[in-house]
Design a protein that fits this description.
Rossmann fold; five-stranded parallel β-sheet; about 15% strand; globular; binds shikimate-3-phosphate; shikimate kinase activity
Length: about 170
Amino acid sequence: MKSIYLTGFMGAGKTSIGHALGEKLGLSVFDTDSLIEDKAEKNISKFFEVYGEAEFRRLEKEVLQGLPVTDSIIMTGGGIIKTAENISWMKEKGLMIFLYCDMEIVLQRLAHDITRPLIQQKSKEEITALFSERLPLYQKAHITLDTSSLSVGEAALKLVDEIKSWHSGQH
Ligand code: S3P
């Protein structure tokens, strides 16, 4: 089975849904942010502080391309779609999924977050504008799932169905 790439804005639930999906499908799970942190031996905030966003995006692309293109669930950072090549990679090599979540919910989840450098000192309006700017890129995904009213388990179950029907349509 081709790898499954989970994309979506910060706070959309990619990590928790990814783990639940990995369990349901019995697939290995990878997280590009965690791999970057391991490689750099720095957390994301420190990485941005020391090397800046451009270097983060360079490493993010390298990590993405180093991951297996079969039998894996790959959780990506919210800005992975900023690199056009990453969208092509995910769409050509696997199944790209966009986990949509209402901004109201996302903003609540991000309210006290100190781990995501791109939203520190940003107003709700600025964060919403960033999401709107990125939305057309996320929408390039093969499958979109609105997770706003779903629990993690429900979202994973729905994805299992969507993934199965996508794969059956591939043959
Ligand atoms: C980013 C999202 C983060 C992380 C980094 C940049 C972004 O991942 O990759 O802080 O540009 O949206 P999450 O979406 O897992 O928070």
